[in-house]
Amino acid sequence: MLEVRALRVSYGGVLALSGVDLDVARGSIVALVGGNGNGKSTTLRAIAGLNRADAGTIRFEGRPLQGLPACQRVPLGLSLVPEGRRLFPRLTVQRNLELGAYTRRDRAEVEASLEQVYADFPILVERRQQLAGTMSGGEQQMLAIARGLMARPRLLMLDEPSWGIAPKFVTKVLDTLQRIREGGVTVLLVEQNLHQALAIADHGYVIQTGRIVLQGSGRELLADDGVRRAYLGL
To answer: How many domains does the chain have?
Structure first.
């Protein structure tokens, strides 16, 4: 579904990614893991079109994405749930969800998606008229994921979904991602909780100083003591 080759991204002349290669198979959960400042978020932002690539190729379902702005990638089926959630705190839960469908024009289909999201995230039904900024961190993360799904993506990318939420919600969020995959949405995940992320991942990539240094199934990466010590800090 997604093919990234030799991706290079820099900030102010400082190289952040230096030749990243990765693939995401349709129907899978893929985890991109590594320490802070190694290029995980930059990779997702480049795929989403929020960071300009200096070199390399990104193909989604066979289509090259170079030159397409972020707003034109969303209707193709790419949706990013950013780090820190980036909700509209002074708007209601329902309004945040509706804004997730901003690029869609068929109101009946948007209403159907709203009903589906409320069915998948029952806690949001209770909070639909509550201001997003008054919810707990875990509830806000559920809303952020649900808002990402309102774009009706085929590939959902998530940047640190366990950031700033209580441990009891971390497991709930990762269980939600498995349910989303079972519903037909492919998932590309950047996550600070390495053990839990790799435990649910079909495939994992380890990134270090802007390069992919290792890849394998999530279980393979977790089972290798050398890998755990050298790259994952586990």
So the answer is: 1
